[in-house]
Amino acid sequence: MFEAMLDPTGGPSATATGPRLAARPARLDGLVVGLVANPKKNAEPFLDAVGELLAAEHGTADVVRTRKTSITDPIPPATLDELAQRCDVVLIGVGDCGSCSAAAVADGIAFEAAGVPAAVICTVAFRVSADAMARLQGSPGYTYVTTAHPVAPLDEAGVRERARRALPELVGLLTEAPVPVVAR
After folding, report:
1. Using an 8 Å Cβ cutoff, are 100 and 71 in contact?
2. Phi, psi (5° rounding) for residue 121?
3. Is the CA virtual torsion 73, 109, 118, 164 positive or negative?
4. DSSP 3-state assignment of 75?
5. CATH class label, 32-175
6. Distance CA 32, CA 73 (A)
7. Quick one: which of 56, 61, 71 has its CA closest to 107?
8. For position 3, what pLDDT does the model report?
9. In Å, how far are 38, 148, 179, 182 from 46, measured between CA atoms?
10. What pTM did the predictor assign?
């Protein structure tokens, strides 16, 4: 009979004090936006739609796209370093399953640690996975944007509509602007 419950995840960092975020710009105009898509269906179209909306409505200067080859692995260090050098802010997503939601949050926290403001997008169904990863990374309470589940089966119009709905919260997370509460 055992007398103690072991946490196979290793538990949260003993030094976890909450999310440490990179300094936010006041506005997005003129900035370069990194788009970090996972290989899930519609992740790239969702981020591309957000990138187009940011350019049209907030005057961003350019986007730099990258696509991860795995939904579970963290962003490769060389890719993170390159994007941190080239981009002012980064969007990561779309967490549309448990593994990819957790990986997206881990990537967002890694960009924040590298000094780049990041906004992660996950579907509401996988908040538990996303929140667990934030705790494991020593950033309990890390804030990300949720969208309705699922994203993968949406058509082009559906993806664009979800991107449009998420935009105000994404802008709020990437800047010093207050994050609006959006009904879904």
Report:
1. yes
2. -115, 125
3. positive
4. coil
5. alpha beta
6. 25
7. 71
8. 63
9. 11, 13, 20, 18
10. 0.88
DSSP state of 125: G
Tokens of 56: 């049209």
| The pair of three-digit structure tokens given for residue 172, joined into one six-digit string | 């709020």
pLDDT in tens, 14-34: 555 678 899 999 999 999 999
Would the pLDDT of 45 be above 70? yes
- CA dist 97 and 127 (Å) reads 10
Tens digit of each residue's pLDDT (9 = 90 or more) over 59-81: 999 999 999 999 999 999 999 99
Q: Which amino acid is at 82?
A: E
Structure tokens at 72: 């579970």
Q: Bridge-partner residues for 90, per DSSP?
A: 34, 118
Q: Which of 14, 21, 20 is nearest to 136 (CA)?
A: 14
Transcribe 4-73 into DSSP letters.
S---TT--S-TT--S---PPPPS--TT-EEEEEE-SSTTHHHHHHHHHHHHHHHH---EEEEEE-S-SSS
* Residue 128, token pair as written in the block: 């538990």
Q: Report the alpha-carbon angle 42-108-110, nearest 5.
A: 135
Inform me whether the pLDDT recorded for 13 exceeds 90.
no
